[in-house]
UniProtKB/TrEMBL annotation:
Residue ranges annotated for the SpoVR-like C-terminal domain, each copy included: 555-607
Native species: Halapricum hydrolyticum
Domain SpoVR protein-like N-terminal: 13-356, 456-552
Matching InterPro entries: Spore_V_R, SpoVR-like_C, SpoVR_N
Pfam families associated with the record: SpoVR (PF04293), SpoVR_C (PF24755)
Domain of life: Archaea
Classification of source organism: Archaea, Methanobacteriati, Methanobacteriota, Stenosarchaea group, Halobacteria
PANTHER family noted in UniProt: STAGE V SPORULATION PROTEIN R
Protein name: SpoVR family protein
């Protein structure tokens, strides 16, 4: 144990310099991250932290053990490797695995600094965090780690309570977790407190009669079947007024629980209400991370690359190890959020920089959108845009750098000349942010040198349409002298502040991007009985990706009625976007939702039916069969699940006229 602590301390000491320098470089690059606390952990501790979602204390539940076992087996049998985990907190906490190489640790540190910048500046994370104080919206819990630790202790206390059956607590958590993604992630978190509607007496009249304990004779004479039918017809109270997306919050406000011994709905106990709200609050805390996986991981990978490769944070003898590290991160199969996000951020930067240059060139006398490709010498333009030699090679030109140049950090230059700074290892220290912008200008990088010339006529015409003629240039050189080199990074920071994955993909996954990177869509083929490439059309690819990220990639379920049938039943509805529910999973969820509501739970959805003969014909014609869309209602009454076809009029409002990605922030936050 002592040897382990000594080794951890040695690794920590070795990383101190890298941590300090990475923070300085991130700041010079224009990032404004939360402060980060770094922790050295061993292999088992890292797997535990990954299972716990980046925190050291979580409430007792089998899900964490399952996640731990999955992570450990992935490392053991699939060649996976845990590099880091960082949580959204102020300060953020990052955990480094002690067995990783120094090159891996440096990559993690630069990656983490960018994550911390994203946490601190993205508005979707701000829905749960007070930007002024860094506190969570729930004022009783001043930081995420403390909030989750407090939740853990609260649930442990309930499990230790001799008057509460531990298995009942675990079972209740299981029920709530089935609905943890049915929140309104586009709204700020607010505790769900019972309001007036929660106290409405919506019990079935027959249940009320049972509570009166009247004789059978009186019941039949005064409150017979005709009376009961009349009561159901007289007053119908439906709520909410409009569909409620926060299903968990609605259940917390209006739900009861099913008491098996009493055979009816009764009020939730205090501990059940508390546990439900704890799980709901944590779902809101983790929602921004689920909503920004591509955006966030791509952002961190982009700046890690700038620092590790562009600024030589990986030493020469570490570079091969780092290249292997990056190939594992970007080379994993399937939909890789690191790769997709990284490529999209590079594309955003290139598009912004290209537009800036094109706007200048279109103001040059004699250059129009029609003759742009013939009139512009792109090789000469790129040579002019390239950084001067002293910016590319600071150590080789240290003696001739002008300290008054705005691209230079004059104080650092003086200290570098006095030998106080190792300029060979950290050349960026001598440059200001303006100098680093020029040093990393994207259009002149070898891998992007053709991007400027690839602009199409339609794009040129669109840009020229919004240009004013009051600022003209006599020559290309004069136009390029006014280029704002920071345009790309400025645009990236704007996007980082306001977007999530859905809005990011919706706006920037263009035809040009899809074709350049050879993206394609694939789906299950009913006729072939297997997965296959379904389309290479950019619009199809975009639609497929958006569907995978809308609502965390989960079905969107809303509450339509909390007094369905005027009997206190719950009516949920599936907002259908062309993808049918897994009926077996849906029935399992309904059974658990029943215990949270206390009365029968219904679900309206649209399902797809495929005729066997149509499938056979489609197979012979090498096409996909056309499904028939059918309205269905699932209901669980505590005993059995029933599935009935319903008239199309009952579900027509659930079908999107166009694929509904919920991508308009002004609608979310209005």
């Amino acid at each position: 144990m002592i040897d382990d602590r000594i080794e951890a301390q040695r690794i920590a000491d070795e990383l101190q310099e890298s941590v300090a320098r990475a923070g300085e470089l991130a700041e010079k690059l224009g990032l404004t991250p939360y402060p980060v606390n770094y922790w050295i952990v061993d292999y088992d501790e890292m797997n535990e932290l990954i299972a716990y979602g980046g925190f050291q204390r979580r409430y007792p539940h089998w899900r964490w053990g399952m996640a731990y076992d999955r992570q450990r087996k992935q490392n053991q049998f699939l060649g996976g490797k845990a590099f880091e985990i960082v949580n959204n907190d102020n300060p953020a906490h990052a955990f480094l695995q002690e067995s990783n190489s120094l090159a891996d640790q440096k990559a993690v540190i630069t990656h983490v600094e960018a994550h911390a910048d994203f946490f601190a500046n993205n508005e979707w994370f701000g829905l749960f965090t007070d930007r002024e104080t860094g506190d969570t919206i729930d004022a009783q819990n001043p930081a995420a780690a403390e909030m989750l630790a407090r939740h853990a202790e609260t649930i442990r206390e309930y499990m230790r309570d001799p008057e509460i059956d531990r298995s009942e607590v675990e079972r209740w958590i299981d029920h709530v977790l089935c609905l943890e993604d049915t929140i309104d992630q586009h709204r700020p978190y607010a505790p769900a407190v019972a309001d007036g509607e929660a106290n409405l007496d919506i019990a079935d009249p027959a249940e009320r009669l049972d509570e009166l304990d009247l004789s059978e004779e009186v019941t039949q004479q005064v409150f017979g079947d005709e009376w009961l039918d009349a009561q159901a017809e007289d007053v119908t109270h439906s709520f909410p007024v409009s569909p409620e997306k926060d299903v968990l919050g609605f259940i917390r406000k209006h739900g009861k629980r099913y008491d098996e011994s009493a055979g009816k709905a009764v009020e939730m106990t205090d501990w059940q209400k508390d546990v439900l709200e704890i799980v709901r609050r944590e779902a809101y805390y983790f929602a921004p991370q689920k909503m920004t996986k591509v955006l966030n991981e791509g952002w961190a990978t982009y700046w890690e690359s700038v620092m590790m490769v562009g600024e030589g944070f990986a030493d020469a003898d570490e570079f091969v190890t780092y290249a292997d590290h990056m190939s594992k991160v970007l080379g994993s199969g399937g939909l890789n959020p690191y790769k997709l996000g990284f490529e999209l951020w590079q594309y955003v930067e290139n598009v912004a920089n290209r537009r800036e240059v094109v706007e200048r060139l279109l103001r040059v006398e004699g250059i129009t959108w029609r003759n742009f490709h013939e009139a512009v010498d792109f090789g000469t333009v790129l040579s002019t845009l390239a950084p001067p030699a002293w910016i590319e090679d600071v150590p080789g030109h240290l003696g001739e750098i002008d300290s008054d140049d705005p691209r230079v950090d004059a104080d650092a230059l003086e200290r570098a000349r006095d030998g106080e700074i190792d300029v060979e290892a950290y050349p960026w220290t001598v440059l200001s942010q303006e100098g680093l912008v020029r040093r990393h200008y994207s259009l002149v990088k070898p891998q992007h040198r053709g991007f400027l010339a690839r602009i199409g006529q339609a794009q040129l015409e669109q840009i020229s349409r919004y240009l004013f003629d009051d600022s003209r240039y006599d020559s290309v050189d004069a136009a390029l002298a006014d280029v704002e080199y920071a345009r790309g990074w400025d645009r990236m920071r704007e996007i980082r502040q306001s977007h999530n994955d859905v809005t990011f993909l919706d706006e920037f996954l263009t035809d040009e991007f899809v074709e350049e990177h050879d993206y394609f869509a694939y789906e299950y083929s009913q006729s072939a009985g297997d997965f296959r490439v379904s389309s290479t059309d950019p619009e199809d690819v975009k639609q497929k990706l958006l569907l995978q990220f809308t609502n965390f990639g989960k079905p969107t379920i809303v509450v339509e009625d909390g007094n369905y049938g005027n009997a206190g039943e719950l009516l949920l509805a599936h907002r259908y976007n062309g993808i049918a529910l897994d009926i077996e999973q849906a029935t399992d969820v309904l059974e658990r939702a029943f215990d949270l509501w206390g009365r029968p739970v219904n679900l309206l959805t649209i399902d797809k039916d495929y005729d066997d003969s149509e499938i056979e014909v489609a197979r012979r014609q090498n096409r996909e069969p056309d499904p028939v869309e059918i309205g269905r209602q699932l209901r669980y009454d505590g005993q059995q699940v029933t599935i009935e076809d319903v008239p199309w009029e009952m579900v027509e409002h659930l079908a999107a006229t166009d694929v509904d990605y919920d991508t308009r922030p002004e609608e979310w936050l209005s």
